[in-house]
Amino acid sequence: MFALPLLVLALTGSAVQAGAASALSAVTRLVVLVPAGALTDRWDRRRVMLWCELARLPVITALALALLRDSAGFGLVLLVAIVDGVAAALFAPAEEAVLPQVVDKSQLSTAVAVTAARSYVATLAGPGIGGLLFSAHRALPFLANALTYALSGLLILCTRIKAHRPPSERRSLVHEVGEGVRWIARNPVIRASLLVAVMASICFNALNLIVLAAAERAGVPTGQIGLIGVLTGAGGLAGALLAPRFQRLMTPRTAILVLAWVSTALTPLLATTADALLFGAVLGVIAFLAPTVQTAVVTYQMASTPDRLRGRVSAALGLTGGVAGAAGPLLGGTLVETVGWRGAVLGCAGALLLAGVGAALSPALRSFTQVTGEAPAEPALTPTPATDTPER
C-alpha cells in the first residue's frame, strides 16, 4: 500500500494517477463487498481466506518481474490494484466472521484490539521496509510482498477453524445482502457511529496521499518519506495495544468525540511545512486515537450479530471503509493538483470539524455508553433464533 503510490509517482509524476491507482483497489473492493458478505456466509470461510491470498500471489509477482525488466506500465499497476481489491473484499468479512468462533465472548473486545494491533504492526513495518527496498530497486517491495502472501496462505492452511453451518435454504444474493443491510438499519448506534467514522476516514485517507505528494514534490528522500508511515503505524500500534484500557476509562461516545476534535485541531499543522517528521507525528497521534473507537464499534457489532449474518453485516459495514478508501486518495490527489497541498490540508481540517459537530449532536451516540463486549439492549432489533448461536 505504501510502495504502490510511490511507484506510480515515479512512473508518471502525477499525483492524480497515484491517487487513482490507490482508489481503484478501494473501488473494486467496494463493488465486490456487496455480494462478498453473502458468499462468505455460504462458503467455508477458511477456504475463502486461503484462495484470496493465493490469487494475489501471481499478479504481484508479475509486477515485480516487469519492474526488474524495466517494462512495467501503468496498466499492470491497475491490474494489481483490481485483483487486490477483489481478494480484500472477500477476505475481510470471512476473517471477521470467524473471530467469535475462536475466542470466548468475554474476550472479544480484547481480541478485536489485538487484531487491530496486528494490522498496525504491518503498517509500522511496511513503510520503513518498503521505503528502503524501493530505494534499492523498485521491484523489491513487490517481491517481498509476494513472499508475504505465500506465507499468509501457509499460515491459514495451518489454522484450525470449525466450519460454520451455512443456511439450509439459499435465497438470492440480493435478498441475502438486503438481510444484512436491514439488520444494520435497525441499529441506530452502528448507523450513527459509522456515519461519523466514514467522514473522518475519508479525510485521513486523503491526508495520507496529500503528505506523500507534498514530501515527494519537496524533494524529501524516499527513506525519510518512509518515516511518515513508520510513525503513523507506531501511533496506531500503541493505540491498539492500549485500546482495552482506554475502553475502561471512557465511553465509546467520548472516544469518538476525542478522535474528532483532536484530529480537527492537529490537521492544520500539516500545512505549515513539508517535513516528514511533522507529517508522521500528526498522523501518528490521529492513528493512536482511532483503535479505541474501532474496537468499541466492531466489538458491539460482533457481539450483537448472529453467526449466520456475520459475513453480510461485516461486508455491509466494510462498504463504509471502502467508500473512505476510494474517495480519500482520489480526493487528496485532486485537491493537491487544484488548490495545492496546503489548501488540501485545510479542506480536510474543515471536513473533520463537520464530523466532530455531527458526533456531538447525534442522539444515537449519546446512548452509546457500553464499554464491554456485551451489546446494549436496543428496541426493534430482530430476535436471534436459536440456530443463530455461534458454534463452539
What features would you describe in this structure?
It is found in: Cell membrane. Residues 1-20 form the signal peptide. Its main location: membrane. There is one protein chain. The protein has 13 helices and no strands. It is mostly helical. It has a single domain (3-158, 177-376), classed as Growth Hormone, Chain: A. The longest helix has 52 residues, at 310-361. The protein is globular and about 55 Å long. It starts with a helix and ends in a 26-residue tail after the last helix.
Labels describing this entry:
392 residues; mainly alpha; Growth Hormone, Chain: A; 0% strand; globular; membrane; transmembrane
Name the CATH homologous superfamily: MFS general substrate transporter like domains
CATH fold-level label? Growth Hormone, Chain: A
How large a portion of the residues is in β-strands, by DSSP E? Answer: under 5%
The largest β sheet comes out as: none
> What is the gyration radius calculated from CA atoms?
21 Å
Helix % is: over 70%
Low-confidence stretches: 371-392
Whole-number total of structural domains: 1
**What distance separates the N and C termini?**
36 Å
Instruction: Count helical runs.
Output: 13
Corresponding CATH architecture: Up-down Bundle
Average pLDDT for all residues: 79
Order of helices and strands: HHHHHHHHHHHHH
* Name of the CATH first level: Mainly Alpha
Large-scale geometry: globular
Structural class: mainly alpha
Report the count of strand segments.
0
